[in-house]
Design a protein that fits this description.
- Keywords: Glycosyltransferase, Transferase.
- GO terms for molecular function: glycosyltransferase activity.
- This is Glycosyltransferase family 1 protein.
- InterPro entries: Glyco_trans_4-like_N (IPR028098).
- It is a single chain.
- The chain is α/β, with parallel strands linked by helices.
- The protein folds into 2 domains: 217 residues, 3-Layer(aba) Sandwich (Rossmann fold); 162 residues, 3-Layer(aba) Sandwich (Rossmann fold), CATH 3.40.50.
- 40% of the residues lie in helices and 15% in strands.
- The chain contains 15 helices and 15 strands.
- The strands form 3 sheets. Strands 5-3-1-6-7-8-9 form a 7-stranded parallel sheet, sandwiched between helices. It has a 6-stranded parallel sheet with strand order 12-11-10-13-14-15, with helices on both faces. It has a two-stranded parallel sheet with strand order 2-4.
- Strand 8, helix 6 and strand 9 form a beta-alpha-beta unit.
- Helix 1 crosses helix 14, helix 8 packs across helix 12 and helix 11 crosses helix 13.
- The longest helix is centred in the last third of the chain and has 23 residues.
- The protein is globular, with a radius of gyration of 22 Å.
- The protein starts with a strand and ends in a 17-residue tail after the last helix.
């Protein structure tokens, strides 16, 4: 099978990049030829004889994502339109190229974020807020175009699937495939508080994410900390450059209880150095860090607005209805901090849950999807009367029908 994957980067250290890295690796292991239309590709993949990299150079001159992404979309489309006949499956990620795709993975739904009551930007909020507002509006329209024209859309969570249906994508063309996690690495790590400069006698919460955006919602975590005992501390992992949160912590007189570590490379060890994971994101499609936390055996406190919260049951975490209620967040954290036995039991159950999200299981589902789409396209091309496009057969499925059976009959 000949596969083309279109994405900005294929590498280990970011969400979408890691997903595509795992899919590409699994496809190569099964004997497929893989073409990566991307700006960056991990060196280890480039050494494989059946992998071809088509570099899309955007250039440093473009200073905003709005322009950079359009440059990538145009350049990738020009190349793919010349070479489309070389592939059995073309897999894109959201709106990334001006081409029709066989498989499109929805890692984020801008129309869902825009419609959220927690969306903070507007035209009257200053230059940056206006830019963010226009960026979201444009991406919502472009994604709608891309998702509606794809044969199958893979949603990374049930939350995303619901947003895709709201955006007009037919339910029978949506397949939920949750992201994966490296369970072995996160389960097998060892913690070391001294290495990270953390106190031995505190109950430590970990918050990990982009500290430049209000969407991840560290502000509410800091506000909740005000209502918690002195022995409860927060460890913050994320690049500090451009973040306002160190100043917020100082204003709230929490300097001694909030430990800003900046970028942390050894996240598995850090996760084994803390007691729980807190992540009340105002909008998330599917959080890789949440899956990493349960793989590390951490109980989690999150919110229903965070994609991935759908897999967290009361036996391994606490899911809040409102991400912006600091008192309820504090109450949930206190329930863990005050009961060490419960905290450990929830962590053990989290570890068991994480085994359902191995990267290999996720990649296998994508490969199964590729084969199904390629087979249907081949039937259509041979004139067997099964439709003019792969999507014809897929679209004729009854609403709610699934392309791929899951191991236990339920989405994983």
């Amino acid at each position: 099978m000949r596969v083309a994957i279109v994405t900005h980067a294929v590498r280990h250290n970011d969400g979408q990049g890691r997903v595509n890295h795992e899919i590409a690796s699994a496809a190569l292991a099964e004997g497929c030829t893989v073409t990566l239309v991307a700006t960056h590709v991990a060196p280890a993949l480039l050494a494989h004889p059946r992998l071809r990299w088509v570099p899309i150079h955007v250039g440093r001159v473009w200073q905003t994502n709005l322009i950079r992404h359009q440059v990538f979309a145009i350049k990738s489309a020009l190349w793919l339109r010349q070479h489309r006949h070389e592939f059995d499956v073309v897999h894109v990620n959201g709106f990334i190229s001006w081409v029709h795709a066989d498989v499109n993975t929805a890692h984020f739904v801008h129309s869902g974020w825009f419609a959220s009551p927690y969306y903070p930007y507007g035209l009257s909020g200053g230059l940056n807020a206006a830019y963010q507002y226009l960026y979201t509006c444009l991406n919502a329209r472009l994604e709608r175009w891309a998702y509606r024209r794809s044969s199958v859309v893979a949603a990374v969570s049930e939350k995303v699937a619901a947003e895709l249906r709201e955006a007009g994508v037919p339910a029978q063309r949506i397949e939920v495939i949750h992201n994966g996690v490296d369970v072995q690495t996160f389960a097998g790590a060892r913690g070391d508080r001294r290495r990270f400069g953390l106190p031995d006698d505190a109950f430590l919460l970990l918050f990990a994410g982009d500290l430049r955006t209000p969407r991840k919602n560290l502000g509410t975590v800091l506000s909740a900390l005000v209502h918690l005992p002195e022995n409860v501390h927060v460890v913050v992992a994320g690049r500090l450059h451009g973040s306002r949160y160190p100043d917020v912590a100082r204003t709230l007189r929490l300097d001694h209880r909030v430990h800003f570590l900046d970028f942390v490379e050894d996240v598995p060890s850090l996760m084994h150095s803390v007691d729980a994971y807190v992540f009340p994101s105002r909008y998330e499609a599917m959080s890789l860090s949440l899956l990493e936390a349960i793989a590390a055996g951490l109980p989690v406190v999150t919110a229903r607005t965070a994609g991935g919260a759908e897999v967290i049951g009361p036996d391994c975490g606490i899911v809040l209805p409102d991400p912006d209620d600091p008192r309820e967040l504090a109450k949930a954290i206190a329930a863990l901090a005050d009961d060490e036995w419960r905290c450990r039991l929830m962590g053990a159950q989290a570890s068991r849950l994480a085994r359902q999200f191995e990267w290999s299981r996720m990649a296998a589902r994508y490969l199964d999807l590729y084969r199904r789409v390629a087979r249907q396209a081949a039937h259509a091309a041979s004139g067997t009367g099964e439709g003019n496009r792969a999507s014809d057969t897929i679209n004729d499925r009854p609403a709610g029908a699934r392309l791929i059976p899951t191991d236990g009959g339920e989405p994983k």
